[in-house]
User: What shape does this take?
Amino acid sequence: MLSTVSQQLLNVIMLGSLYSLVAIGFTLFFGVLDLINFAHGDVFMLGSFVALFLFMTVAFFSGVNFFTVLLLFLITGFIVVIAGLLIYKLTIKPLATSPPLMMLLVTVGVSIFIREGVMLFFPDGASPHPFPKIFPETTYTFLGMNIPAGYIFIIVISIFLVVAMSIFVNKTKLGMSIRATAQDREAALMMGVDIDKTIAVTFIIGSLLAGIGGILNGAYYSTIKYDMGFIAGIKGFSCSVVGGLGNVYGAIVGSFVIAFLETIGAAFLPFGAEYKDVFTFIIVIIFLVIRPSGLMGEKKFEKV
Amino acid sequence: MGKILTVLLIELLILIVSVFALKIESTVGFLLLLVSIVFAIYYGAKNEKIRYRLQDAFSSSRRFALILGIILIFIFPLFFMDSPYWVFVITIGVIYIILAIGLNMMLGSLDLVNLGFAAFFGIGAYTVGMITAKYGLHLPYLIVLLLAGIVAMIFGLLLCLPTMGMKGYYFSLTTIAFGLAVELTINNLEWTGGPGGIKNIPHISLFGLNLGDSYTVFGYDLPFQLNYFYFALVIMLLVMLVAWLIHNSRIGLSWNAIKEDDIAARAQGINIKVYRIYAFAIGSFIAGVAGAIFAPLMGYIAPTNFTYAHSITMVAMVILGGIDNIMGIALGAFLLSIAPEKFRAFSDYRMLIYALIIILMVIYRPQGLIPKKIRKYDFIGGAKDE
Assistant: This one.
């Protein structure tokens, strides 16, 4: 019994860290731009496919070692950041003055564009692809849990990314401009914050986290498919909403809450495994109804 | 008299060009035709004199233009008697026009981006499938049609009530979650046939006529798809009429007031909740009716017919045609449901093209192909579209 419980707990931690890498992007974009980027989940998917492509070409010549895996992460991160910047410059920036409906629709369009692009132009893109084993395959036993080494890498990398992001946002000048823009856009503009640059930096951070999250996701599930970004995006958005949109730490808390509920649902409800996603969506809808501002969000009042 | 002649000529020209566009075999020829149409429209819209003459002709003989248009639409499929498949494709186009008009009640009139609208379509289709194929009940078809609409409406209200206070992104997320939950549930339940769907849905029989039979008129054997086309067309015209009446009524005006500024609308004494319930009830009812035509036409339905991609397609239709303009939406829906058949060689790229259409239209022409008209008022009540 102890081992099942702790094994489920391990699943919660794994899912929670993967979800939070996506959810942080949603919450950052919402903070600086009042935008929900429906294409964010597909940036996540793009990350795993870019990594797979690099692995197929680069690692073919040199084999898997620490250096190639590090290079894999760096190049993937770079490409995903470029993709995020392109999304911002080409589709979202031209709509800066349009109604929010239009921004929402354009991100939906970009989302499908990326997904279909990968499906059509990646070799045999429509079928699931096995993801290479980039982490060592030894397994440790701890408190009755079987922990593969890959899991430890995934957790460590996630924590590293989240801490680095948190230091960046809280300690640097650019991070300060992100926080200022999120608090009050006009005031930040008057204080000389370069809003355009700030938003671009936010897209860099968000896309980087999501893209690396995509690699880790591939390593965790060991298969990737072109349409996985859709569910990942919905889950990431749900997590940031549950935590409270606009609050970075809320997004992390929300991710673990959703991961917990999902694991519990899959393990203990009848037909839980098949209806896992339905269960999560119902929880999110209930949550949106009861507490739309989220666990850690501020309650906002509408003013005319 | 000259004006009526202008209307007659223009509408005949549109008919001939569209028949030709669908008949033409080579992709290159079709593209050339498309380019020249776009060029002609662009030139016509730019030239003040031509534009003014056309507007004048159409606005001074509106009734004639409308009746002639309807007659020409009735004649339209007769050009495709040799290929029943095209009649089938056009019928699907008509069903999507009905769906897009239903979606517009939320997306266009109220700015509520419903990204799970295909769920209502599916619920309508499955209601018909369950009643007629699974349980084999022999109810009159019109009652089945109404039941499909009502069941979809009940689900619409189920979605409406919890989302009452939501706007923008929260609303869209909830509708995506709703659409997925419906799709996954239909896919997982054994009761609804699981991923295999429902097979052998009987054809519609209406006033003693079986729409699945091919009838012989004046010595011509008409394909059975034609019966469905005319049936769907009648429903479409009814839905358009209802949508037009609602748009010009107090309800449509209140919807647009809420869309512009919900707090100001509330201050004017508009009960937002009631009008949102109207939008959901009517919109989902229409989608259910569309599903009730779709299921017997196909004879076989599965969860893959009602996915997120279909919801996106419907949104793309409304955006392309023109938000909150019935003629525009009809044009957008028809174009997007015909286009994949024309571009068979690129049919894999269909969703990619839809996505590009959404992106480009939103950035460069957010008002759509035929923009919505500004309401005009005179002193003695009532709104009028000019």
